[in-house]
Design brief:
3 helices; alpha+beta; about 25% strand
Length: about 170
């Protein structure tokens, strides 16, 4: 009895096993395929996220750089600001009660790679001690990058005379 029933049972079990093995193999293949697609999608998402972060970083850097460039332009003298600067220097001297005079304005070309040149301005004032010293402080605190190359304050008979040579960076 066992041998006559066992053959068909073994055949059925073998067929079921083969079908299950095929289904299992197809399931594993399908899972691998979906896993590969998921990995590709995750890689694309990561790349997109990296790009978005990079774009945000670039925008932030541009915004920060815009502020820095504006600050740089404010301290660097341009030719359109030069006349106004000279007028402000003379007006400051007069406001302090000094006889202020711009003796010379000279452009000095630098051979540096950044394209900046210097403007040398020679200023002479005559007046009392306190305004002369105050004028020197005003020149030191001009809204541009100022280098005082030379300054002298001399006592004349009834007043003080100062001579200030300063350099300002200019770009054009």
């Amino acid at each position: 009895m066992t041998s006559s029933h066992s053959k068909p049972l073994l055949i059925v079990l073998s067929l079921i096993s083969a079908v299950l093995a095929t289904v299992l193999t197809l399931g594993v293949y399908s899972i691998r395929l979906k896993n590969k697609e998921t990995s590709e999608l995750l890689n694309r998402i990561n790349e997109t996220t990296k790009r978005e972060v990079l774009f945000q970083s670039i925008r932030l850097t541009q915004d920060i750089a815009a502020e820095d460039i504006k600050a740089f332009k404010d301290i660097i003298l341009s030719s359109d600001k030069l006349v106004l600067l000279i007028e402000n220097i003379e007006a400051s001297g007069k406001t302090l009660g000094l006889d202020a005079e711009i003796l010379s304005v000279e452009e000095i070309k630098n051979t540096g790679s950044i394209g900046l040149q210097s403007i040398r301005i020679v200023i002479e004032t005559r007046g009392s001690w306190a305004p002369t010293l105050s004028f020197l402080r005003v020149v030191e605190n001009l809204p541009h990058r100022v280098l005082i190359d030379e300054s002298s304050i001399l006592k004349q008979t009834d007043s003080w005379r100062s001579k200030i040579i300063l350099s300002l960076y200019s770009s054009d």
